[in-house]
Structure formats: structure tokens, C-alpha cells
Inverse folding.
């Protein structure tokens, strides 16, 4: 398992769709229905900037990118492996 940061950015016109996807994913985490091996650890939304930062635990970056492809959020996003320093 690795810890990953996903940075999302979207156009203002997609804000409602993005917030729905965020709510759905948070709901899946709370109900423990995310695919095995995936844990959404936190979501930070910077609404005024149309950005979000999500902290995930996943088998690897490729697996999380594949999951993002299935969820297909209306965002530009990048996936970066992170190492907790504190």
C-alpha cells in the first residue's frame, strides 16, 4: 500500500458535478463500499479556487489512476505518491 495525493482542478461550470462526485466517494468510504485496497483518508476542497486535494491509500498509483478513470470526475487531476513526514 502507498499513500497518494490527488490534486483536482475544475472549471466553474462543473462545480455542481464535482461536488456530487465528492459526496458519492465520501459516502462510499463511510459505507466501506470502495474497492478493496482503497481508502479515502481526507478531502480538502478549496471552493474559491475550484480545487480539491484528496489523500488516498491504495495498492499503487496505477490502480488509483484506473479507479479515477472509472469514476471519471469532471476535473483535471494528477496523482502523486507521498511519504508522511509528520
Amino acid at each position: 500500500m502507498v499513500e497518494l495525493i490527488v490534486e483536482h482542478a475544475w472549471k466553474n461550470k462543473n462545480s455542481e458535478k464535482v461536488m456530487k462526485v465528492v459526496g458519492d466517494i465520501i459516502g462510499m468510504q463511510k459505507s466501506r463500499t470502495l474497492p478493496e485496497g482503497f481508502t479515502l483518508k481526507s478531502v480538502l476542497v478549496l471552493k474559491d479556487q475550484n480545487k480539491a486535494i484528496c489523500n488516498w491509500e491504495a495498492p499503487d498509483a496505477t490502480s488509483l489512476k484506473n479507479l479515477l478513470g472509472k469514476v471519471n470526475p469532471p476535473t483535471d487531476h494528477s496523482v502523486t505518491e507521498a511519504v508522511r513526514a509528520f
Q: What stands out?
A: Residues 2-82 form a domain with the Alpha-Beta Plaits fold (CATH 3.30.70.100). The chain has two helices and four strands. The longest helix spans residues 15-30.
